[in-house]
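If I may wish for something, please walk me through the protein I am sending here so I can picture the backbone:
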Amino acid sequence: MESGRFFYSRNFVSSFANWIHKRIYRYFFRKFDVEIPDKEGFELLKKSAGNDGKQPLTIYISGRNSKIEQFLLNGFMIENGIVPPTHSFGPKTRFFRPLNEMWTMFAALFKPSVIKEKFIESLYIPVDSPEELSIDPVFAEVFRKIKHQEAKIIPVITLWDKNLDKKIRWDWINQFIGRYNFWSTSWELLMFMLKRRKLTLRIGIQTTLKIEENEESFVKKLYTLMNISKSNVSGAVLKNWLDLKNETLFRMELETKEEKRTAIRTMRSMSSAYSPLYAEVISYFLGKILNARFSRFEYSRDEISDLCKICALPAANTVFVPTHKSYFDYLILNYILYKEKVTVPLVAAGDNLDFFPLSPILRKMGAFFIRRKIKDDNFYRKILTTYLEQIVTAGYNIEFFIEGGRSRSGMVRSPRTGMLKMFSDIAKSADRKLYVVPVSITYEKLKEIEDYNKEKQGAKQPESEHFLKKVFALFRADYGPVYIKFSQPIYLNTKFTEETALKIAEVQEKSSVISFSAVFSALFICFDSLSINELVDRMEKTVEILHTLPYIQTAYALNNLDVNCSKLTGTLLKKGDLVPADKNSGENRKFSISKDSASEFSFYKNSAAFAFAPFFCELFRKTDLYQFVSEFLENTIMGYYESINSENPIDVSSLPEWFRTMLYRFFADKFTIFGKILEIIPKHGFFGTGKVTHSEIVAKLLPEVSAETAAATADDIFEMLFFLEKKGAIAENLSSFDAVSAQELADKVKILQIK
């Protein structure tokens, strides 16, 4: 067969054959998902009219020789105004061609010259059989025509269940019809129709390539590019959970039977049992539940688009690091990623959640469980590191909470560096690039704050205790909107430093949305009583002042203060969180916080501390206290650094007097807590034994501190202990206490409290 007839019978069509084909495509289009990680490159395809000598040759490569893929891709290109490939090595396309062209093909059987060979503007090449392609005489002829050109290589990937060619449930039929790649079009079409929305078409990230090699080398390069693209699309499914578990044990090269038994037991309790089908079903129902409990989820489509592009980079893994204020964090992030067709990550969960019936569900959704404390267990650390290395090498996206546990104060906690350092070391040994994506999740309302308050009175209740009762309580409550921010990725350098972890925590907090609840609570905390009119005026001015900092983002609810303030005040009055402060009625009636709700208001207020800190520090710019105040807030608020004040100069002289008062009162509880810690630490005799831990100190201090300051939390005390270590009042190994340094700090706190 002449090359012209060869390509004519295999080439894409420039328009739908007829209205029947158009209807068929549109019916199918509802049953498959499209993923385009490179939006900019895709837009350029629309603008490019072909190879006119200026535009590079475009080559679409595919891992499957499939009529269905060709039909879907062809229809997708027609619908989006992209010129279909002028040449194709794919299957014959007679079924998809207009009837008048069928006569042309019939005539070509007797007179081949009726089909004229087109100039090669673009190519579609399935690379499922690279050996056969590299010796194909027609391909050799075409290769000679395109050699020495610069080409844009675009991977086209179709995934069934994002599980590539794995069809475990149909293995028994393979002996009759062959592997999935060789199924007939009719069978493939039937499977497509039965498995609704189970197919994903991805137009991958473009690669520019100079065609200089021979046919064989060129095809091998295309095949390699295709495999890299597949691994970054499908990620987790390249190795199932059992393979990961077994390879972890294999690569550890365990010598004794006892080591093997211990490693097997550890892997059983640690490893994920990720099931794409199970995760899809759970995510579907989870979305229904979350949408019923939360009024809406606000996030940026542009951020999602950037995220898709990062997730599709070759030889790279995306590490999601969300803030941690609620059990909902993991569920909401998982749901958003699933909904937006971003590969859902495997999640490092604490072993406190490893109990029935929760752990089997989480394992199926991709969670693996690790101990909270592994510092002194080298064997466990070795197992964990090996397992994480298999996860990274396999191409999984990963999620973990850098804060460790949930924040009890409302602010981002100091980062725990252990997991991050492990990933940094693994990236080097696995030859993978890791991009950390800080994620900020902000809530208008959280029911869990009630449990946080109870923890101050005694030991923390285990998650397994009264689990079902807690779940029903959480999912019975109605919550407001949730704000999700995906920050720009941070490349995880293989030379890890603690500064990387601090940078992630800073980005997490600085990119948080200032909620309506945060500003509302801050004003009621800082003033004894307020009327609705005073509240609206001061909230409006506060938002205006905060927006003078370029990175501040505020909730949509803060744009409609008249209605929202009245509505929330009425709700809180009925609940008893607000109480009348006088006997007036109407607009002049004032309200104040009830004693029992002070901790909850403080939690919401603290979530905006990073935004108020620059203004508060600037009040001390020309005093001796400036350095102390800045250092104290830098260590207790992850989203604040002193350099912010120099980058964004603040004119405090223009601030209203009531706002200055608000700033002092906003941070008054922090300095009160710190002063109390400095007062009672010497009385306990914690230091000198060398055996005390931070957690033990916090557990003993919290009841005493919170008895005087209701807003005090364990997180506050932890951060202030770290600050005392930095200032030299406490030795880093907790072996000694410097009373002189502590007294100097206490004297400064007293001056602030007088102010």
